[in-house]
Amino acid sequence: MTQPTTWVDGAAGSLYDADNLPYGVFSHGDEPPRVGVRIGEHVLDLAPVAASEMLEVAHLFEAPELNPFLATGRGTWESVRSWVTGLVTDEAERAIVEPSLIPVAEVEMLLPVAVADYVDFYCSLEHATNVGKMFRPDAEPLLPNWRHLPVGYHGRAGTVVVSGTDVHRPRGQRKAPDETTPSYGPSGRLDIEAELGFVVGVPSSLGEAVDVGGFADHVFGVVALNDWSARDIQSWEYVPLGPFLGKSFATSVSAWVTPLQALQAARTDLPGQDPEPLEYLRVGPGAGLDIDFEIELNGQTVARPPYSSMYWAPAQMLAHLTVNGASLRTGDLFASGTVSGGRRDQRGSFLELSWGGAEPFSVRGEERSFLQDADTVTIRATAPGANGGRLGLGEVTGTILPPR
Ligand code: MN
After folding, report:
1. Domain count within the chain
2. Ligand 1 is a single-atom ion; what residues have CB below 5 A from it?
3. For 200-250, what is each residue's pLDDT tens digit?
């Protein structure tokens, strides 16, 4: 479906054309934070426009988080998207809308969602295989459950931060395999994980499983996500209960939440599942997503992981997450796990790019493996849009500061 052309200067043909329209929360000067939609290099301030048109939903956009809007459900998500599309494409709306367009450079973007529960999965076959080889060199890289269920763990919702937030190098307990006793101190193997995050809008009841068909009724949209990881802390602590303090110090997300409705042209088939999963995890064609990631370290691109290579589909993650009756809350966030493709330049973590530090990669003429203080990492994601161009899924950036 081709979208009509936008009248907003510079937006047509950009990563934020009228076929994208992601939502975020911004603050502008001394005004209270509220909900905006990105179009080109502007934020459309929805609250005053909705109020002037006396829309019932106007109050949803005065909130300092997307949660009230997310909770309304698919019908409202769709009608608001149609309304916003009309605002930015219909010349007749221009006089009303133009005063509410604020340049992106003039606003501060805030965490878009008050995150309820946070889950991180492990859905890339290549990533799981690479990590298995490094963490358990003498065993099968994939554990027996991996091809039967999307493996995940519950993370720390309270430390999810918006893109641009600095990250202090964490301290913790670690023990290298060749050391006899553990020690305490700053992580020496600080890493990133390029991931896609899924934002839940509509809650479910305790005891109710959300099946694979319920994905688009519950999940509003996606964010680009960086699961900062302290590998030395992680590899010592993770047995047998999984990741803990090596992950929980910070998780960064893009300021913009791209609605699923914008990602129709990005739907693609999964690469293939063998063996066929249990009935509750079975999905049809178009369950995957064709999204391209780019990882930049200090301004240089170091990898381009393809989301289309992911083994488990987002609908399978949600079905598995709720199959025991665990309920969803508005603002729940679940992430895909590191996106890694089959080639070296498609690996979504520095652990894999440098093979545990054994094969450093070159950045601006320097040999690099794990993160150094003052390093800046930026992860960008783009997807095919309805107009035949690309959609920007925002970027997620962060700079490493010394430990506190
Ligand atoms: Mn992760």
Report:
1. 2
2. 120, 193, 227
3. 999 999 999 999 999 999 999 999 999 999 999 999 999 999 999 999 999
Ligand 1 midpoint to CA 381 (Å)? 16
Strand partners, 175: none
Residues 91 and 184 in one domain: no
Kindly give the pairing relationship between strand 167-168 and strand 390-401: parallel
Candidate list 127, 148, 168, 218, residue with the active-site label: 127
Q: Are residues 259 and 163 in the same domain?
A: yes
The candidate with the shortest Cα–Cα distance to 204, out of 30, 91, 73, 394, is 73
Lookup: tokens for 151: 């493996």
Of 53, 76, 110, the residue at which a domain comes to its end is 110
Q: How far is the CA of 247 from the centre of ligand 1 (A)?
A: 8
Q: How are the residues of the chain apportioned to helix, strand and coil, as percentages rounded to the nearest 5?
A: 25, 25, 45
What's the 152 CA to ligand 1 centre distance in angstroms?
A: 9
Comparing CA positions, the residue from 404, 355, 399 lying closest to residue 378 is 399
Q: Within this chain, do residues 248 and 380 fall inside the same structural domain, yes or no?
A: yes
| Catalytic residue flag (residue 154) | no
Domain that holds residue 369: 118-401
Q: Could you tell me the distance, in angstroms and rounded to a whole number, from the CA of residue 193 to the centre of ligand 1?
A: 6
pLDDT tens digits, residue range 40-76?
999 999 999 999 999 999 999 999 999 999 999 999 9
Task: Give me ligand 1 centre to Cα 162, in Å.
Answer: 16
